[in-house]
């Protein structure tokens, strides 16, 4: 028993020293730069090292698979079947053309028309454009996280050791570090904004509020080890404007807000989120809605309009897709924010899925599980492009304007521009789309009104 | 195994006018679930026909993706009661699904009558499978009812 005592105190001492060292490192390398907005560049070096390791790992797996003659599962990003992008009319005409030598311009019905619908239907069962946007993107090379690899089988000792090392580093070193940072960031945000809230309104309050917000968001960015590259910063949103961006996860907010100063829009939640929201609004005006008010579109529009018309208030940050999409495409923008008539500043956010998939699959993971997954990935790497501001032209309506903004964002971010509604994640598609198809087909078999009156 | 609701969750299938009929083709008689084997059997109809297969197995059972079987798949979309004949009513039903509310009943009826008249050869006012095949004998079924996988 006497032998244990000095050993015990040694362990305690070691623990104490390591915790102190950890916190000093934390303070010096992470929090202080965050406060002043500078960076040591540690994260970039980290990212480069990881990339090299991933490339080696992928080559090793492919070599190993070839040696053992295992079929390698390679995900195809552009779809797995060959599709011809022809319209309904063109395709049906082609089918008829091959079938008979009859005059093709007369509208009539052929038994072979059914082939078009049949084949289209089966094609969508094999591979459709919409349902694959609601699950995480598949990677072509492995990033040493077992959650993303479908080839995960024993290939070589070195690879497994590397993976094990990766697990150790991520869970035992990075995770506690990140949780400590997140905790610091959030508590600083809440206390900071509450304290600033007690000051009288004026330039001093605005200045302090801006810096408290920025500082805390920067700490949160480091808590996720997010490596962000901002492009075209001269186009950053100004007061009285609306900033729209594509939505992949709740982290988008932190990424954008750590580089600019925005007013948030959203529904008031309970719990920790609610505490944060209520604290933030004390320091500067954000637009929070009660749950009951969210359904009332006119009320929402009115409050947003009031906000943008006040030039002293900050630009609003809105995600018009309404739900999280997996960052391979941009889905339909809801027209509400485009009806207000303010200048729109589009922003494109593209994540690099190699280091950690940021997509929040809300039907699969709750918020806490999601955050834990984020904090145990290697890093979140993304690029943010600030696009030049757009305003609604007189001959456009809100929907066309929304689509124009959406195309610009999709083009810049290298994403697929889809017309489908992100709400299809949970709801069924509206019948109007089916009716459109039916109308198109009817024209083919009876012609439009002009044709009929002529014959 | 899959149920009908799983298929209906695909938006592009839900807006296809014949979506429900196509979904039905996967499910065997009276059942509400299809397993992977059944799923693949139905999809196998759409495998492209390769040239070397045509001369291969003349004595064995006909492959699912033969021209005849592809035509049979389309025939079954029309023939709901599976009596091997497309009656006027069945044709009208499919036409109605494809055009929605855009064409009147009389017009649709005359289109159906004309189609049956052109195809019917044995005078029973219905289209049998043989008559169906005859009408479509020049159509490039191999290409139009095949889906190619990218490699």
Provide a brief overview of the structure.
Chain B: It comes from Neopipo cinnamomea. The complex is a heterodimer of chains A (455) and B (151). By secondary structure, chain A is of the alpha/beta class.
Describe this structure in words.
With 455 residues, chain A is an alpha/beta fold. Chain A has a domain at 157-425. Chain A is built from 14 helices and nine strands. In chain A, strands 1-8-7-2-5-3-4 form a seven-stranded mixed beta sheet, with helices on both faces. Chain A is flat. Mean pLDDT of chain A is 79; it is low at 449-455. Chain B is an all-alpha fold. Chain B folds into two domains: 1-44, no CATH class; 61-150, Orthogonal Bundle (Recoverin, domain 1). Chain B has ten helices and two strands. Chain B has helices at residues 4-8, 11-14, 19-26, 36-44, 51-54, 67-78, 88-99, 105-119, 129-135, 141-144, and strands at residues 85-86, 127-128. A two-stranded antiparallel ribbon of chain B has the order 1-2. The two termini of chain B are 27 Å apart. The model of chain B has no long low-confidence stretch (mean pLDDT 81). Chains A and B meet through helix 3, helix 4 and helix 13 of A and helix 2, helix 6, helix 7 and helix 8 of B.
